[in-house]
Amino acid sequence: MDKLFIKSEDLLKDSFQLAWNVYKSGYAPNYIIGVWRGGAPIGIAVQEFLSFLDIKSDHIAIRTSYYSGIDNKKEKVQVYGLNYVIRKLESHDRLLIVDDVHDTGHSIEQVINDIKTAL
Asked: Which CATH fold topology does 10-118 show?
């Protein structure tokens, strides 16, 4: 699969469009997780846009790792930096997880599993 590189202006515009789509859907997250690295700036833009629309949320960046070196995959995705979210989340909270790339889905799946296990 060929990689698609986009300009920073397009990333920001697309991030605002994502936030608008979330808003139009009626979903109002009060926590936004941006998966480091690419999902962090998207998460920030989404949070800022939703804040402009009076939807207040807390934003945090986490990191995932599936490789121990070039082309050396680990057995499972490692998730780092969830402690803050796990300490804060309650059953009534609404969480939005943002990443910039979707290939296998393993990273997001592991983030969700780690949160569910911890709660």
From this structure: Rossmann fold (3.40.50)
